[in-house]
């Protein structure tokens, strides 16, 4: 499409946008199980309105022109400190997402190694196979070699393998709370202890769990320690745009000590336009999503998050019980929250996935051993839970012969 010669009427192009998205995944109907964290209309309006109030602002000016953005960010970091066991020394920044938060966590490990162990020229990161691709991406960019460790029988990082993987080049060990593929929490205290013993960083990836596990614990669930209450945890990534229910484009990198934030900053003092400094990878940063994150936290409050987490917990139990009743179907490991995988003994899950896709569901298929389907539940799925179970029961017997070229769901863009 060429750029139109003349500008078009606003109503016309907005209508065209509405039409264009009609065939996208119907997340509003609870049909999608990744990429979107839906709640309800009040939630959507809150983040939309706060976002438009701040749409013209720029986070690059959060210390000057847009001081109110800096204050909103400080409020959000303070809330995260209370939820994630931080001391007064804990600090952090809003990033564009989990991948950028993880990048900053890995940068802190690199900066520490440069300062404390300058002889390390081929730095290594130790991560479980369930660790998020963002670690591999950060490793690729920062010149770190990923050293992968397997999982134990419960789909959690194998602590012995972690201990054995440490070399003089190790600069950081990674654990997830929880990991994405299975929703299980790695043995963070044991892993962080290994990092502490060797004087290297430990990063807890709480992108999924950071704004859910603290509320689940308050609801009485048995959640093992994973945050700054664990000695040895150096940095935490926690996504606001997942279970914080903020707008897409917001996550947190959190540092145990303010000095880590200082050493991970980028500063340049020889640019023609003058001094330049940023705490994250981004330069200009959208202010709208920061306002939206602040607004949804204030709108929900602790009561709201507890209510939504209770709702998702009940829904998860209901769906897991229903799935477990389909002959052959089985939940993998002991998922900590609303993210989990199930296998189907004696069934063809590829065919099941294709049939489900034909019926308008977006469900991730995982090349685990054995193969699995992946669900990620949010409050929006209350309305679709029974239909989902019914469709799973109806497609459970699907055979490859019935399936023709259906798109496979995957995380690629
Ligand atoms: C989503 C996710 C990430 C990466 O977050 P993005 O916001 O997609 O960049 C990292 N770790 C885990 C466990 C995740 O689920």
Key structural traits:
38% helix; binds pyridoxal-5'-phosphate; 12 helices; 7-stranded mixed beta sheet; 15% strand; 413 residues; 4-stranded antiparallel beta sheet; alpha/beta
Can you walk through the features of this model?
The protein is built from 12 helices and 13 strands. Strand 5 (201-205), helix 8 and strand 6 (235-239) form a beta-alpha-beta unit. It has a 7-stranded mixed beta sheet, with helices on both faces. A 4-stranded antiparallel beta sheet has the order 10-11-13-12, covered by helices on one side. The protein has a two-stranded antiparallel ribbon with strand order 8-9. Helix 10 packs across helix 12 (385-395). It is of the alpha/beta class and 413 residues long. The chain is globular. The model has no long low-confidence stretch (mean pLDDT 96). The protein has helices spanning 10-20, 41-53, 67-83, 98-116, 133-142, 159-165, 188-198, 213-218, 258-264, 288-324, 349-358, 385-395, and strands at 91-95, 124-128, 145-149, 170-176, 201-205, 235-239, 251-255, 266-268, 276-278, 329-331, 339-344, 364-366, 372-376. The longest helix has 37 residues, at 288-324. The structure holds pyridoxal-5'-phosphate. Pyridoxal-5'-phosphate (PLP) binds next to helix 4.
């Amino acid at each position: 499409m060429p750029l139109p010669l003349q500008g078009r009427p606003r109503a016309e192009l907005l209508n065209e946008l509405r039409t264009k998205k009609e065939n996208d995944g119907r997340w509003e109907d609870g049909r999608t199980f990744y990429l979107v964290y839906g709640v309800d209309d009040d939630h959507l309006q809150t983040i939309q309105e706060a976002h438009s109030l701040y749409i013209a602002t720029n986070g690059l000016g959060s210390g000057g022109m847009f001081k109110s953005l800096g204050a909103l960010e400080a409020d959000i970091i303070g809330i995260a400190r209370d939820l994630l066991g931080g001391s007064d020394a804990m600090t952090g920044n809003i990033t564009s997402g989990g991948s950028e938060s993880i990048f900053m966590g890995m940068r802190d490990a690199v900066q520490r190694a440069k300062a404390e162990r300058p002889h390390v020229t081929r730095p290594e990161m130790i991560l479980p196979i369930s660790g998020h691709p963002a670690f591999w991406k950060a490793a690729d960019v920062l010149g770190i070699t990923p050293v992968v460790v397997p999982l134990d029988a419960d789909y959690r990082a194998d602590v012995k393998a972690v201990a054995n993987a440490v070399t003089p080049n190790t600069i950081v060990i990674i654990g997830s709370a929880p990991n994405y593929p299975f929703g299980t929490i790695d043995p963070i205290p044991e892993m962080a202890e290994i990092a502490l013993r060797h004087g290297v960083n430990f990063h807890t990836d709480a992108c999924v769990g950071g704004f859910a596990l603290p509320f689940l614990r308050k609801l009485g669930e048995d959640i093992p320690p994973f945050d700054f209450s664990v000695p040895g945890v150096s940095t935490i990534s926690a996504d606001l745009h997942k279970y914080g229910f903020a707008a897409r484009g917001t996550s947190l990198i959190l540092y145990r000590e303010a000095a880590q934030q200082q050493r991970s900053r980028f500063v340049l003092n020889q640019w023609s336009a003058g001094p330049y400094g940023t705490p994250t990878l981004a330069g200009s940063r959208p202010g709208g999503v920061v306002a939206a994150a602040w607004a949804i936290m204030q709108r929900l409050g602790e009561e709201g998050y507890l209510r939504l987490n209770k709702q998702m917990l009940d829904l998860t139990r209901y769906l897991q019980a229903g799935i477990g009743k389909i002959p052959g179907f089985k939940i993998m490991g002991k998922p900590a929250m609303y993210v989990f995988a199930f296998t189907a003994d004696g069934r063809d899950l590829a065919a099941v996935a294709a049939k489900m896709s034909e019926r308008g569901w977006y469900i991730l298929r995982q090349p685990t051993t054995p193969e699995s389907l992946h669900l990620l539940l949010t409050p929006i799925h209350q309305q679709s839970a029974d239909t989902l179970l019914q469709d799973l029961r109806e497609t459970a017997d699907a055979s490859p012969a019935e399936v023709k070229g259906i798109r496979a769901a995957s995380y690629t863009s």
